[in-house]
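Human: I would love a firmer grasp of how sequence relates to backbone shape in proteins. Could you go through the record with me and say what the backbone is doing? Here is the record:
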Amino acid sequence: MKSERLYSHATHKILTLCLLLLILEACKEEKSRSPQYKALTEAVYASGNIIPRNEYKVFATTEGYLSKKAVTEGEAVKKNQILFILENTQQDIRTNDARDAYQMAVKSYGSNSPVLDELEEGLRTARLSYHNDSVNYVRYRNLWQQQATTKVAYDQAVLKYESSLNNYQAQRARYRKTKDDLLRALQNTRSQYALQQEQNTDYQLKSEIDGLVYEIYKEEGELIQRNEPIALLGAANEVYLELSVDEQDIDKVKIGQEILVKIDVYPTRVFKAKVSKIYQMLDRQTQSFRVDALFTEQYPGEFAGLTVEANIITQYKPKALVIPKAFVVGDDSLWIIQNGKEKKIRFQKGIENYDWVEVQAGVDTTTRVILK
């Protein structure tokens, strides 16, 4: 048994030694190599999120308590559908006061207006008196012309006629002025009531799109301040990618470039997209630029806000002379073996990725490059 254990131990040491020799030999061989031809893709790394199209936040345009949530998260909504109702006691009072004033003005100006009825009755009485006194005045005038009445009686008839005329004209003017005033009051109170009703619509928050409610930030009973967000809405089945690209790489990104996208929710799949928009303003906090992209194939899920990682393909060459990136010294130099001696040279670099660099001039497939 002891000899078997010794044999096993010795065998293990030999296998370990052989494995180390193989590793060392491989490492030794990797310390130098020649450039080779292969397909090379240059890509820019980006990270970001999946965002629903037409995304917008629902903001309160006035202050009030959230009295009713008419929708729930994940619910599909139609344009102009009521989402939330706010309540404000002062606004309710103003609306009720404006309604009462309007109703009073309607009653005062309407066909059964007590004010106008009283004035009309006075106007009718004044008109009747004026008519009677006018007839009496004409009769006395004729009599006076025929010298059939006294001057005193005629003057009394003239005075009464003129008094009735003045009273009738005053009553008519008073009626017209009152009616005009009541009409203006009716128009003003109607406008005020309509204004308050319009302001009431500020307390009914409606959807601006056909879409989906992605998030609701408030609960019923909470006080909502003016310009405070209440919910997040967006298109139901349309999404786009909102990516961040480092400022050192943004000059390589162009509209229409293909993008390969990885999403954590779908770990076994790679999605394709293309660059749709490049924003010109640098985000100083992240030192990156925003780039938007659209999926070029059907996005399978209804999830939004997911984190993604992406490679924006900036160039592709089906046959490029390449060298491992680890062999490059600085930005554009290589160590090579020339006439049995090590020598540092400069080369012309083309496209590159994380592993490989294209060699456009300076070395060829016969050159032996050294890893330093």
